[in-house]
Amino acid sequence: SSEGVLILCNILDLLIYSNNVKAALNKANVDFLCQEEEYSLDRILGNWFDNGSQLSGGQWQKIALARVYYKEADIYLLDEPSSALDATAELRIFNSFFEVSKEKIAIYITHRVKIAKNATKIIVIDEGKIVGIGTHTELLKNCTIYHELYEQEKEEFEKS
């Protein structure tokens, strides 16, 4: 499954408080959790308890990404980290991710060409088999499936 793990805790527990907490929340586009009156860093997340606050799927994904940004690891592996986000939130999240992961190893799995095109190397997998490896430009020329996905996304964007 590409969903983040849902655990009973508060935001502070997720991020282990420090000066980097607000920066991590901001990069993940969940800084509202520090700003809105109904939320605070010690607010219990999840509706399993009477005083817990349930977040949307996209908000849970943003919290998971805030943990990634807080960690400042040398290697990142993300599996569909934006599947529950709208296009605007997704773009902001990935712009932050690309900034954070510069000079590091970052592997992310996505079905969206608009996100994959920013990678230095893209691996296209169809039915469990690698059908293309290259840059965005190379794959547009040499990989039919990638080109078709690109055109489909382009048409969907133009309709909206």
Provide a concise account of the structure shown.
The chain is α+β, with helices and mostly antiparallel strands and 160 residues long.
What does this structure look like?
With 160 residues, this protein is α+β, with helices and mostly antiparallel strands. The chain has helices at residues 11-15, 20-27, 32-35, 57-71, 87-100, 113-116, 136-142, 144-159; strands spanning 9-10, 44-45, 75-79, 105-109, 122-126, 129-134. The strands form 3 sheets. It has a two-stranded antiparallel sheet with strand order 1-2. A two-stranded parallel ribbon has the order 3-4. It has a two-stranded antiparallel ribbon with strand order 5-6. The longest helix is centred in the C-terminal third of the chain and has 16 residues, at 144-159. The chain starts with 8 loop residues before the first strand and ends with a helix. The model has no long low-confidence stretch (mean pLDDT 81).
Low-pLDDT residue intervals, each spanning 5 or more residues: none
Q: What would the average pLDDT be, to the nearest integer?
A: 81
CATH class of the largest domain, anyone?
Alpha Beta
Q: Architecture of the largest domain, according to CATH?
A: 3-Layer(aba) Sandwich
Amount of helix = 40-55%
Question: Rounded to an integer, what's the Rg over CA atoms?
Answer: 18 Å
Q: How many individual helices? A: 8
Euclidean distance between termini CA atoms: 29 Å
| CATH topology (level 3) name of the largest domain | Rossmann fold
- Which structural class fits the helix and strand makeup? alpha+beta
Name of the CATH homologous superfamily of the largest domain: P-loop containing nucleotide triphosphate hydrolases
Instruction: Name the shape in a single word.
Output: elongated
In percent, how much strand structure appears in the residues?
15-25%
For the sheet with most strands, the description reads:
2 strands, antiparallel
Kindly state the number of beta strands.
6
